[in-house]
From TrEMBL:
Organism of provenance: Reyranella aquatilis
Domain PhoH-like protein, residue spans: 98-301
Family: Belongs to the PhoH family.
Localization, UniProt: Cytoplasm
Keywords annotated in UniProt: ATP-binding, Cytoplasm, Nucleotide-binding
Name under which the protein is recorded: PhoH-like protein
Amino acid sequence: MTFDNNALLAVLYGNHDRNLVRIEQLTNAQLSARGNQLAITGTPDDAGVAQKAIASLYERLKRGLSIESADIDAAVRFARSGAEGGDAESIRTRKRTIQARTPGQRGYLAALRERDMVFALGPAGSGKTYLAVAMGVSLLLAGKVERIVLSRPAVEAGERLGFLPGDMKEKIDPYLRPLYDALHDMIPAEQIAHRMESGEIEIAPLAFMRGRTLAHCYVILDEAQNTTPMQMRMFLTRLGEGSRMVITGDPSQTDLPNNQKSGLNDAVETLADVEGVRFVRLTSQDVVRHDLVTRIVDAYDARDKKSKA
């Protein structure tokens, strides 16, 4: 490969060529840089993946975007899958531009743009909640919705609200912390506080949804595998005029009693053929946390399949 911009090339390679080292680790190809030329050696498949990933990263730099470690991993994933890069599906928020980092995430973002109700099912770290919050923030900032409503069932690891210390806010905050964390990644803290005071951003446990009609807002139900069928039915029927709804969950990690059917699984079965509802299934290949998380998810999935067999 030959490059025409030495300034961008220094950024592409990284300090002490650390970006090239990472690409070598991910692709099993060998990279050798000399001046503005880069030689790639390896099997046709490995060398092809490395070449596509490097070309994608170089084009990203030419558009004025930065390169982080996660961007390198994403470029290799897209190159290996043969799909277009994730830059085609991105979300702009106050603090950052959020992009799909896997082909599965790209499909998820497309569904969030196109549908009024989306179910996202997948393992921890696959971006289900984070991307849903990002889309909600983007629509709020663009004036396309009036409010964001974030909700979770307060049932985790065998605990119940009544046994926890403090007032109601102190009781529910630990359950909603992942939603707060996602918001802080996208909006300055002082704006979050202001928008929560004004009601533009509302965070509430699922139990507080009964009897409401949610109009002109973006509604997210997180950890939906911990709902009962009755709670899920109640939540889905809150959808009002001009609103969108996203339901996220990992069917393999329910905290409900063993004899209680998950409302998420029940909804997947019941609404499979309902027009206007989109189901997105993410896998361990969409996990964008530490590499070890992907291997952990795969190990548990293999164990579960073996036990079922």
